[in-house]
Amino acid sequence: MGSLTIGFRPDRSVGLGIDIGSRVVRVAEVQQAGERLELSGIGSFAIAPGFVERGVVTDPGSMGKGIRGAIAQSKITSRRATFSVPSYVAVLRWLNLPRLTDEELREAAKFKVKRHLPFPVGEAYIEACPLSGGEGEEEREHLVMAVPRRVIDSRADALEAAGIEPVRAELEAQAILRIVDARLRRKSPLWSDASLTIIDIGGTTTHMYVVQNRQLHFMRGVPFGSEMFVRATAEGAGVDAETATAFLSSEGTSLDETGTLQIRAESGIASLPLTSELEKLTREVLRLLRYFRSLYPERSYAGILDHVLLCGGMAGLRGLDTYLAAILGLHVDRMRPLSNMVGSFDTESFKAISARQEAFTVVIGLALSGLSRSGLGEGRKEYSREFIWARSA
Q: First-to-last CA distance in the chain?
């Protein structure tokens, strides 16, 4: 799809992203004029347990009402959006496929991937993205992605209930890679082929991605995330989950080198050890690193596991990057998706968002897809409810 120009000057393109998570929905609108990127609207709202089950929106009407309210409060004007598909519901396989037309390629991918699926191939959206291969080669490597149709359809229904046109669906991984790609290109042309590891700490799932030459080469998830830290904080501080979430999101809260949470409040400073939860997180990350190394000869991953980028709701906790760097023995940075971007609202609000911007990594990546002219996503085809996913992140 091309750039969107809704209600703005012809030289200004607009992208709207909507990230439906397991516990939080986030919306963001980004505008571009020349080289200038402007965050023109951003917001979020919490959803109750049960509103999203295994990636499926169980009540699209109610979800749409919440999205509509968040968009209105954020003063977002776009009415066409790219929306998220959770990585944990997707099946990814790297397969060699022949050179075919798009439709033939999709059918070939369905045939080869169906035995790997935990759901019927007829109930899935399938997309194949070419990764390698020269002009003369009969076959080349493709990344084949499969997602249950009910996941995408229920999310599209929620957007439509909010008065928003769903134009493209993307894996959370694709949105994150778009942010990483922009970051690498800003550093230097020499960084365009850089490789690194991404750790995305979501509400209920933590994912590890390995990127080489701007392409996704590895993805694995473990079934726990920031909710584990929210529960521990709530129990340790004797507060409810909402208050514990506010503590963890506060700019005055930090994690020290011993794994102790330092909560600064009006009544003073409270210390709360999170060593048990942090040990579980680091143990699982180390297990995933070992698993990745076991899949490839050492020369193929040399150096790429040395640099880690953190994103997700927990990544903005001050001191977490330093703590993980010490335990993992790796260089760890926060994602910073708002880098090189300005805000069209007051300075204090933009500073507050910037302080915890890692939580908005996926939704910013989705919004940026609306500014891209390289994607092939055309949204739902009339009468068929088909989706074509963005082929590049």
A: 14
